[in-house]
Design goal:
It contains 12 helices and 12 strands. It is an alpha/beta fold. The strands form 2 sheets. The chain has a 7-stranded mixed β-sheet, with helices on both faces. Strands 7-9-8-11-12 form a 5-stranded mixed β-sheet, sandwiched between helices.
Length: 299
């Protein structure tokens, strides 16, 4: 996905004089050639993440389309006040592209982890959030985001699904349960393959989301209405329960149960390990998801 991002943004810089890329050192080596071609539109502010967002806000006010990039904690958490004010309060747009996911950079330690990035942006109005599950999806979503004028966060991951899905703001149904099914599972971005494997023996509808904000409330309502039970399981690659309020709003007209799976909120893991180690610890590997799904649906 990171390579797809570099290629897509490099092409955008060549084709659209409105685009500008703002970096804070991270991935600078991937943009040496675009920087040589467009020295005024590839801006590396150094390790100054607050300034990175401030510069993007200024570019947007001047009519440019800024693309801002770093690891998720340096892109969303560290300069959050600037995101709130320099972009949101000024009501200007930018494309924020984060790498690292929740703990892709596991060996770099907690400084490089950001499981709360989507939940944090969720406190601000007017954001579109994309979570691609494949590098082809990342490419398509980035092209669309760059062509727009609003505020967009594209959350890239080092892991992905085996095949790409058509990008859509709507939920895409991969597996349809029977009229007596146990409910609906929503898999977000790179969680899809694991969810399909984990729920293979269950009578449930499985839907996929690569765009999580705005959330497809109408689509979820229709899927639940067609299912045998109004039980919803949402599997997200970031903080557990981030989309719980979206599910509640989508199903406010009926009694329902919901369970959110994601990065745990109860305790912080202080061992480095691999991303797969973290997945197991949070129950986000296939075995952990299968157990949670069975415990939830087969009650």
């Amino acid at each position: 996905m990171r390579q797809a991002f570099a290629e897509t943004v490099g092409a955008a810089l060549d084709d659209d004089p409105r685009t500008a890329l703002v970096l804070a050192v991270i991935s600078g080596d991937m943009f040496r050639r675009p920087a040589a071609r467009h020295p005024g539109r590839v801006i590396d502010v150094g390790i100054r993440e607050q300034a990175m967002i401030g510069v993007a806000g200024g570019l947007a006010l001047a009519g440019m389309r800024p693309i801002v990039h770093s690891y998720a904690p340096f892109l969303v958490e560290r300069p959050f006040e600037q995101i709130k004010l320099d972009l949101g309060h000024q009501d200007v747009g930018a494309v924020l592209v984060g790498i690292g996911g929740s703990y892709d950079a596991s060996t770099a330690g907690r400084t490089h982890h950001a499981p709360g990035d989507v939940a944090l942006l969720d406190t601000l109005p007017g954001w579109t959030v994309h979570v691609p599950g494949h590098h082809d999806e990342a490419r398509d979503l980035l092209k669309d985001a760059i062509a727009r004028d609003d505020r967009v966060y594209v959350r890239l991951s080092a892991t992905g699904n085996r095949t790409s899905m058509p990008v859509s703001p709507r939920l895409t149904v991969l597996r349809t349960g029977s009229a007596r099914s146990a409910g609906v599972v929503v898999a977000v971005g790179p969680m899809l393959d694991r969810v399909l494997d984990a729920t293979a023996g269950l009578d449930v509808t499985v839907a996929y989301a690569s765009t999580v904000r705005p959330f497809d409330r109408d689509g979820l309502s229709r899927l639940v209405g067609a299912a045998g039970s109004a039980d919803v399981l949402v599997v997200e690659p970031y903080l557990r329960g981030t989309s719980a309020h979206e599910v509640a709003d989508a199903l406010a007209d009926r009694r329902h149960r919901q369970l959110g799976l994601g990065v745990g909120r109860d305790a912080e893991l202080r061992s480095y390990g691999t991303p797969a180690d973290h997945d197991r610890a949070h129950g986000l590997d296939t075995e952990g998801l299968a157990k949670a799904a069975r415990d939830f649906f087969l009650v």
